[in-house]
Design goal:
This protein has 2 helices and 5 strands; from the N terminus they run αβββαββ. By secondary structure, it is α+β, with helices and mostly antiparallel strands.
Length: 130
């Protein structure tokens, strides 16, 4: 039998309240993930584009749990608007070799980046522009 703080047993009403709270927390987490994905996909979509060159590629081990390795491949690009600016795009991989092959395939490539018209130091390389 489960007990709440204070020594009284867990009632059916208490169990319903706890279940509702857990359900709400889970729904908020799911909503945040969906909203974050949507923002990431639409950010910069309407900003003007300029050409950029991918100058630096790197792969970093960002493993949180040894059972599930994780590597972050980053493409660093340079563009002019009107001064030279720099930005980056990252993608996660479960395998270091895959991350390295992916990153190296873009080294030296020219891509289209979206630049914030109010702040030319802010730019976005969208996945569909790779």
């Amino acid at each position: 039998m489960l007990f709440l703080r204070g020594g009284r047993p867990l009632t059916r009403f208490d169990a319903i309240l706890i279940s509702l709270f857990i359900g709400i927390v889970m729904l908020v987490a799911i909503f945040r993930a969906i909203l974050g994905t949507w923002i990431k996909r639409t950010r910069g979509r309407r900003w003007p584009t300029v050409s950029a060159n991918i100058d630096i590629v790197s792969v970093a081990d960002v493993t949180d749990d040894a059972r599930y390795p994780s590597y972050l491949a980053t493409l660093t690009y340079l563009y002019r608007n009107p001064e030279q600016q720099m930005g980056d795009y990252s993608r996660r991989f479960g395998n270091k070799d895959d991350a390295q092959v992916w990153a190296n395939s873009y080294k030296g490539e020219t891509v289209k980046v979206h630049v914030d018209p109010r702040d030319p130091t802010r730019s976005v390389l969208r996945e569909e522009d790779l």
